[in-house]
Design brief:
Elements lengths: L14 H7 L42 H11 L7 E3 L2 H9 L7 E5 L4 H14 L2 E5 L4 H6 L6 E5 L11 H10 L3 E5 L4 H4 L9 E5 L13 E5 L2 H14 L5 H11 L2 H20 L4 E5 L9 H7 L6 E6 L2 H11 L4 E2 L9 E4 L14 E5 L5 H13 L8
Parallel strand pairs: 2-3, 2-4, 4-5, 5-6, 10-11
Antiparallel strand pairs: 1-7, 6-7, 8-9, 9-12, 11-12
Helix pairs in contact: 2-9, 10-13, 12-13
The structure holds pyridoxal-5'-phosphate.
The site of pyridoxal-5'-phosphate (PLP) has 16 residues, from helix 3.
């Protein structure tokens, strides 16, 4: 963990400045303004390891430090974050904070990798799982009795359901459960779960933080020194470490995250309005739409609505697939949060919960011109439902 002089007052600096200014090297004349990539498996001076020594490349790498510093500051945490080999490595590390045989409350529409991992943990560690409809705060609170961990995503992937994070984190605290929030969809620019009462925040930095669909990396952030020490120990012993090049690329991506999210969120809001009026679309879920079930909650706890939409295509899975095949500019591919717009029918994955509609297409809006994005979508949708075009 690198001490950083800036860490005591990041609260004074706006998040869209922090993405640029956090994690910079000290200002030394003639020295670079960016940290270098450090490639090493070991460090001089490991004869008698003292606390603070780096010792070995699986324990620490100087290329992780500025990214961890920046992520900690962005989440308004008291400590730097921890970076991992992937979002799932971060998820697994955070879930390891629940003891063997623990009771875990988790949204029924969580990221399917998290749900699959939970299925493994049920078999291997006796984890008891309670699936929650997180749009129903009272029902979710009622599952917390005897729980050890409340796992949250908000908005959920891919249903875009919004949880009342403050109420649920308070309920979990009262029940003696840790609250972990997977903040991948929102990023710390739009939502800071630690400020809303969560104990731990998880990210797939593969998505918005990296932002260019060219790196896989994860992160965990907490303000609790004991939790951080447990997470770091888990990372070291499981070897779930980020490569230095991946850490460097992710910090480079982070520098433009505010611009990317501003642009893609504005386009997402426009596309959500237009899609809602298209006859080939049954329904649109986007928290930024005033009629969306999550709108009021998202407006209260987020600084924007993000750039993921879920649309249900009239005519079922087959029509949804035909629409995807007809797209020329949008890329039919999994993942999200990159500069390029991606579209995917989520139920093509066998691991996706069956309560996710077969005809649901998740749209990750990128930074292209919004009219080009709309024209491509409209052309593909018009071909499904000929008639008066929107
Ligand atoms: C992609 C994703 C993950 C997993 O991250 P990887 O980097 O792919 O391992 C976890 N949670 C959410 C919400 C995601 O979208």
């Amino acid at each position: 963990m690198q001490p950083n002089a800036d860490h005591s007052h990041p609260g004074d600096i706006a998040p869209d400045t922090l993405v640029v200014s956090a994690g910079r090297p000290p200002r030394v004349t003639d020295q670079p303004v960016n940290h270098p990539i450090v490639l090493t498996s070991t460090y001089f001076g490991a004869v008698a390891p003292e606390e603070g020594e780096r010792v070995y490349g699986r324990y620490s790498n100087p290329t992780w430090d500025p990214l961890e510093e920046a992520l900690g500051q962005l989440e308004r945490a008291a400590l730097p974050g921890l970076v991992y080999a992937s979002g799932m490595a971060a998820v697994a590390s955070a879930m390891s904070l629940a003891p063997a045989g623990a009771v875990l409350v988790i949204p029924r529409h969580s990221y399917n990798g998290s749900l699959s991992l939970v299925q493994d943990l049920i078999v291997r560690t006796g984890l008891e799982v309670r699936l929650a409809d997180i749009e129903d705060t009272e029902a979710t609170l009622s599952l917390l009795d005897g729980a050890d961990m409340l796992w949250l995503e908000s908005p959920t992937n891919p249903m875009l359901e919004v949880a009342d994070l403050r109420a649920l984190a308070a309920g979990a605290r009262a029940a003696g459960a840790l609250t972990v929030v997977d903040n991948t969809f929102s990023t710390p620019l739009l939502q800071r779960p630690l400020e809303l009462g969560a104990d731990v925040v998880v990210h797939s930095a593969t998505k918005y933080i990296g932002g260019h669909s060219d790196v896989v990396l994860g992160a965990v952030v907490t303000s609790d020194p004991q939790l951080r020490a447990s997470l770091q120990r888990h990372r070291t012993l499981h070897g779930a470490i980020a490569g230095p090049f991946e850490a460097w690329l992710t910090l480079r991506g982070l520098r433009t995250m505010a611009l990317r999210i501003d642009r893609s969120s504005a386009s997402a809001a426009e596309l959500a309005r237009r899609l809602a009026d298209h006859p080939a679309i049954e329904s649109v879920r986007y928290p930024g739409l005033p009629g969306d079930p999550g709108h009021a909650r998202a407006a209260a706890q987020m600084d924007g609505f993000g750039s993921i939409l879920a649309v249900c295509v009239a005519g079922g899975a087959e029509a949804a697939e035909r629409m995807l095949t007809a797209l020329r500019l949008w890329t039919p591919a999994t993942s999200l949060g990159g500069v390029e717009s991606l579209a995917e029918r989520r139920r093509r994955h066998a691991s996706e919960p069956e309560s996710v509609p077969e005809n649901l297409v998740r749209l990750s809006v990128g930074i292209e011109n919004v009219e080009d994005l709309w024209n491509d979508l409209r052309r593909a949708l018009d071909a499904l439902a000929p008639g008066p075009a929107a």
